[in-house]
Amino acid sequence: MGRVEGKVALVTGAARGMGRAHAAAFAREGATVIATDICEQIPSVAIPMATPADLEETVRLVEVQNQECMAVEADARDADQMQEVVDSALQRFGKIDIVVANHGIVHTSNWETLTNEEWRDQLDTNLVGVWNVIRPVIPGMIESGGGSIIITASVQGLIPLHGLTAYVAAKHGVIGLMRGLSADLGQHWIRVNAVCPAAVDTPINDNEVLIGLVSGGKENATYEDTFFPFQAMNLLPSALMPAEAVSDAVLFLACQESKYITGVALPVDAGHFNQPRGVPLIASQKIAELEHALAERDSGLQ
Q1: What angle do CA 188, 246, 267 make, to 5 degrees?
Q2: Which residue, among 178, 88, 64, 83, has the nearest Cα to 132 in the 3D structure?
């Protein structure tokens, strides 16, 4: 029997990346899936967003595992749309046992370049939109005797990173929301937790905007040019984690194995959060290699 056999799981941002991986993981472990995504471009976001075709592929990945998938194009920023999604799901399936508020956007702007539109879109999507997803599900969970709510935060919800001012603010906010809801809902056996990933190998990182930021503005930079900077942030020798690594943590927080865990911000980050202060070991090694190469070059010129 699967770890979430007979459960109904709502996953937002499910058209691709981590959301798609979560939906597929739930299906593999026996759950019916409700998959939502905006499936259109928010004008202020430079990174290409998911499409209806992406959401169709998620449906295929769920259904190929003989599980039902209700797919809805919905904007989490709109509370009425999310209420309609929940109402339709409850009418169709009778319950929602698991919610994964996974959707999110990122603007690579610091305080000086961040526009008011970018600020509003970031907070409306990554913080207000999470509330809009969770709130309509709570009454049904209380009535059915419990459930699991999981928020995709970020390791940047625990520590900051240059050039992501609004993103860092929003992700810190959802961790506060998680903690507040865990206090309010624990008496109903509703558990509320967050996963805090570091860099994940998804389209949100594999694009010109993020490649330019992470590679330090290197001319004609490629995705591979981000691997060293990403790995330098981690303790484990890993640059970008597969989305499935985060899905494993989400699945754990959704099933009976974590029945007594609530109010936790769980880093799934290859050790990013615990990176000691100072120059990372891998960066020190790279500097030493460069210094050695320069010394050899200089000795050859003499």
Answers
A1: 75
A2: 83
pLDDT, average across residues 148-162: 94
Crossing angle (nearest 10°) for helices 17-28 and 243-254: 50
Nearest to 167 by CA among 159, 178, 176, 156: 156
User: Which 3 state secondary structure label does DSSP give 140?
Assistant: helix
Q: Which helix (H) or strand (E) holds 256?
A: none
Structure-block tokens of residue 130: 């999470």
Structure tokens at 91: 């009418």
Give the span between the Cα atoms of 300 and 2, in whole angstroms.
Answer: 64
- As annotated, the active-site residues are 167
Domains of the chain: 8-209+234-273 (3.40.50.720)
Task: Using the predicted structure, report yes or no on whether residue 125 has a pLDDT greater than 90.
Answer: yes
User: What pLDDT, in 10s, does the model give residues 198-231?
Assistant: 999 998 888 888 787 777 777 788 888 888 888 8
- C-alpha angle with apex 272: 266 to 274, nearest 5 degrees? 80
Phi, psi values for residue 194, rounded to 5°: -135, 145
- The pTM assigned to this predicted structure is 0.91
Beta partners for residue 241, in sequence order: 200
